Amino acid sequence: MPRRRGSRRQFQFGFNMFPEIPRPFNMIYKCHSVAMFPGNERQDVERGGKIIMPPSALEQLTRLNINYPMLFKLTNKKTNRVTHCGVLEFVADEGKVYLPLWMMQNMVLEEGDVVQMESVSLPVGTFSKFQPLSPDFLDITNPKAVLENCLRSFACLTTGDVIAVKYNQKIYELCVLETKPGNAISIIECDMNVEFAPPVGYKEPVKHKKEDEEMAVDPADLMPEPVGFVAFRGAGNRLDGKKRKDSASSDVLPSKPVYVRGIPDYDYQIGTLRFIRRSTKPDKENEPSSQFRAFSGTGFSMKQN
């Protein structure tokens, strides 16, 4: 009897050492846009990257021991378009899935078309680069915060997708140019660096170089004439009364007084204005680069507080 008890314990211990291996989920559904979903309007699905699946899919996923979070690869066999998504709810009609409109447009899907769904495991994202498809995106005061708030409704990103960002009753489209460490990444509970490329149709503002302007008025001319004793104002003479040979070349023009700010112009005439303009040449080393740098190199955390 002790031997039998020992063998049972060994069998139980060995059974726990080999947990059930997850099996892949692979199904074909008819896809519809969220606008076709019965009931109230689902804007939460429309502005995110998650879909609605039927209840039977949840039962099958549970039996297959799928890893969490549940991420799926969608494939349109007709056009070979591929994207990735998460799941929001399991309340769709059997045999149907409901997708955001922007996702259907990326995959070139019409109402009722067939889409293949496979369960996948994606690496956690560390970097992504977006390109707005309109210069109007630059009008947003804080685009980094707007994008961060939008991506909270997404589970993953795929390179080449065009996502829709809704802000102030307006929809902005952004193309996902690059993702790291792979072409498809999970953005659930991650710290991700984000960069922006110049929007499509964006043009650098033309800088007109103004020529250096000389002083319109010499500030020394605004100084009042000196009154009273002025040292060394006279001219030198020879004792024999003759003129110096180099007197013609040595004549020095009377020096102008040094301009001092704060002394009023005593010769001011009513109805006249004088402007003193001085333009300095810009330092080329300190000039901003002409390359597009709007909100480049920003990063944020997708972790829920």
Question: In a few lines, what is going on in this structure?
Answer:
The chain is an alpha+beta fold and 305 residues long. The chain has helices at residues 2-16, 43-46, 55-63, 101-106, 143-151, 247-250, and strands at 26-33, 50-52, 71-76, 81-89, 96-99, 114-120, 127-132, 156-158, 162-167, 170-180, 184-186, 191-196, 298-301.
General description of the model:
With 305 residues, this protein is an alpha+beta fold. It is built from six helices and 13 strands. It has a six-stranded mixed beta sheet. A five-stranded mixed beta sheet has the order 9-10-7-12-13. The relative contact order is 0.13. Residues 4-15 have low confidence and may be disordered.
Tell me the number of helical segments per DSSP (H or I, 4 or more residues long).
Answer: 6
User: What percentage of amino acids are in beta strands?
Assistant: 15-25%
- How many β strands by DSSP? 13
Taking pLDDT < 50 over at least 5 consecutive residues as the criterion, the unreliable ranges are 4-15
* Largest sheet descriptor: 6 strands, mixed
**What does the average pLDDT come to?**
79
Radius of gyration: 39 Å
List keywords for this structure.
305 residues, alpha+beta, 13 strands, 15% helix, rod-shaped
Give the secondary structure arrangement, pairings included.
Layout: H1 2-16, E1 26-33, H2 43-46, E2 50-52, H3 55-63, E3 71-76, E4 81-89, E5 96-99, H4 101-106, E6 114-120, E7 127-132, H5 143-151, E8 156-158, E9 162-167, E10 170-180, E11 184-186, E12 191-196, H6 247-250, E13 298-301
Parallel strand pairs: 1-5, 2-4, 7-12
Antiparallel strand pairs: 1-6, 3-4, 3-6, 7-10, 8-11, 9-10, 12-13
